[in-house]
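Query structure, 97 tokens:
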């Protein structure tokens, strides 16, 4: 999924980083200036909501936009993601336009 999305937006931005570890992501956010975070809701060591909460402790929504990818259509999950600081969400499966 990361390779599909990164290939779609390549050329639209100067730099794309693919990070597959929540703790590594939190460290990178502290030291690098990202404008957009696209992340899956389901992650190996942290839930998407937990990671969004941690990211928001470091960067507010004016500093970093967060787009969550989810295959879950439950309104409760979507509301929870937005309440925890995500800017928006995109349903999976993602298809090239």
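Result returned for the query:
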């Amino acid at each position: 999924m990361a390779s599909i999305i990164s290939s779609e937006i390549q050329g639209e931005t100067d730099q794309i980083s693919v990070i597959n570890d929540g703790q590594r992501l939190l460290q990178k956010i502290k030291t690098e200036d990202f404008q957009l975070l696209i992340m899956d809701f389901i992650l190996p060591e942290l839930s998407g909501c937990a990671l969004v909460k941690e990211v928001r402790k470091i960067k507010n929504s004016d500093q970093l936009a967060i787009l969550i990818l989810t295959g879950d259509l439950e309104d409760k999950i979507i509301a929870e993601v937005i309440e925890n600081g995500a800017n928006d969400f995109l349903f999976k499966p993602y298809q090239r336009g």
